[in-house]
Design a protein that fits this description.
alpha+beta, 28% strand, 6 helices, 263 residues, 7-stranded antiparallel beta sheet, 3-stranded antiparallel beta sheet, single chain, 17 strands, Double-stranded beta-helix
Length: 263
């Protein structure tokens, strides 16, 4: 893996010229940001957007209030698992213009656990065999909000959500608009199928590609502390919130930076 991931730091100074430098991920400790400062930091990189499903901080529609333990369900084996977490994903790829990036702040943390991992999506692509690169070049995939959020809302809300956010078709291999690097642009949350293939072939190919994000050599892991802040580029990374802290709680606040077309 190329060393794209910056090292962690304890201070942060962002100039307007920095808005073109959000290319991977960075994490900073001891940043006691006010809501206004959190918004201002996100806007350095571009306009912000809300979320159609996840709740927001009262009075701040662009700051998502992300709470972990409320998503717990119990599976048939009696194990506890998060419905919304435990997935490698890129934010809001169900949009026609998926998110450029995000700024996430730790507000309430469990005594242990609750780390976040990031994966380099360009390294995941680079690690493919040449034959696989040729196979997926030019393919598109369907990204659908209902694929992830559909089972967490009432049927009438699901229908309205599907109408407001119809499925989008993004390239399987996305070219980063600033670096020119090719990245794998499919994810477990919103990618429902590979376009142009039968159901079985689509599922098999998608499973192979999603497995690439599980390679440890392509990843970094961040252990959160109070007032820590992470900033990442959704165009070149995926992330995975580790759901290993039940019955404790984890509450985070995120601003999402609006993106552009994927073509």
């Amino acid at each position: 893996m190329r060393p794209r991931f910056p090292r962690r730091g304890q201070g942060l100074a962002v100039r307007p010229s920095s808005r073109h430098l959000l290319l991977a991920s960075a994490a900073f400790r001891d940043l006691d940001l006010s809501h206004e400062a959190h918004l201002a930091l996100g806007r350095v990189f571009g306009p912000l957007e809300g979320h159609p499903v996840i709740g927001h901080v009262p009075g701040y529609p662009e700051i998502l209030d992300i709470r972990g333990a409320e998503g717990r369900v119990e599976d048939a084996a009696g194990d506890k698992a998060f419905r919304a977490l435990d997935k490698w994903h890129t934010d809001v790829t169900f949009r026609a213009h998926p998110s450029l990036g995000a700024v996430l702040r730790a507000r309430e943390l469990p005594p242990i656990g609750g780390d976040t991992l990031w994966c380099d999506a360009a390294a995941a692509y680079d690690g493919l065999a040449d034959a696989m690169k040729e196979r997926i070049e030019g393919l598109t995939a369907t990204h659908d909000i209902v694929h992830d959020f559909g089972d967490r809302v009432a049927p009438e809300r699901r229908a309205a959500m599907a109408a407001e956010f119809p499925p989008q078709h993004h390239p399987v291999v996305r070219v980063h608009p600033e670096t020119g690097a090719k990245t794998l642009f499919v994810n477990a949350s919103f990618t429902s199928r590979i376009d142009g293939l039968g159901d079985a072939d689509s599922a098999a190919l998608l499973a192979i590609l999603l497995d690439r994000f599980k390679v440890p050599e392509y990843q970094i892991r961040f252990r959160w502390s109070a007032n820590a802040v992470a900033i990442w580029d959704n165009r070149s990374t995926q992330h995975y919130p580790v759901a290993d802290y039940w019955p404790a709680h984890r509450r985070m606040e995120r601003v999402t930076i609006a993106g552009g077309p994927t073509q």
